[in-house]
Design brief:
Elements lengths: L2 H23 L5 E12 L2 H11 L6 H8 L11 E6 L7 H5 L11 E3 L2 E15 L2 H22 L60
Antiparallel strand pairs: 1-2, 1-4, 3-4
Length: 213
């Protein structure tokens, strides 16, 4: 590769991307609208509606039902708790529902590409400080959205049809979700077992307590 080719194909695009990334990241503030919510995730609409009926019963415990029935293994042990999250941290229509629910209310089943969710909102703040992890997530998402928009504007034709590889997507909790609790393993018993005393062998014909011979 010539020096001119290196500058045209590698160096200049890298510098341009760095400048664009810096300009986009500078728009990210230190605070944002956030919701603290929990969810129950299941695979079918029928099951989601059945769980919603359970939640409508007097004395129903959302968190316990999440532990027992949610398929989101990362949040189920915490009662479905997703922690605090920004709107862009969740897929639509999950975000739309979560950010519109009154405090303490539970949604009807909501479908996303991950399955069927039932959402409970604990709190909602219009201008909550962001954590470092949330800020980095916002920066990454902002840059990726800009790149996706530029790619959509590009008119590229190809004679080869792309064959997508089907893959099941797994729900990923937002950065603010509490960590999944770990269950300590049982400590193995390393004590030396007490051996039962071997019965004394008495030769046939010998008096008990008298040496044979």
């Amino acid at each position: 590769m010539s020096r001119a080719d290196y500058a045209r194909l590698i160096a200049r695009p890298a510098v341009a991307r760095q400048k664009v990334t810096g300009a986009l990241e500078a728009q990210i503030g230190q605070q944002a609208e956030q919701v603290h919510a929990a969810h129950i995730l299941v695979g079918t609409e029928d099951l989601a509606r059945s769980i919603k009926e359970q939640l409508n019963q007097p004395g129903a415990n959302f968190e316990q039902i999440a532990r027992d029935q949610s398929t989101d293994t990362a949040t189920a042990p915490n009662g479905g708790d997703l922690g605090w999250f920004t709107r862009n941290a969740m897929v639509e229509p999950f975000a739309e529902v979560a950010f519109s629910l009154p405090l303490g209310s539970i949604s009807d089943p909501v479908q996303t590409r991950f399955g069927w969710h039932i959402i409970k909102v604990y709190d909602h703040q219009p201008d909550r400080p962001l954590t470092d992890e949330q800020i980095q997530r916002l920066k990454d998402d902002t840059v990726q959205e800009w790149l996706n928009a530029r790619k959509a504007e590009t008119d590229i034709d190809s004679d080869i049809e792309q064959t997508p590889t089907p893959a099941a997507e797994e729900f990923q909790p937002p950065p603010g979700a509490p960590p999944t609790p770990t269950i300590p393993l049982a400590t193995p018993d390393t004590s030396t077992p007490v051996m039962a005393a071997s019965p004394e062998v008495v030769p046939v014909g010998s008096p008990i307590g008298t040496p044979a011979g």
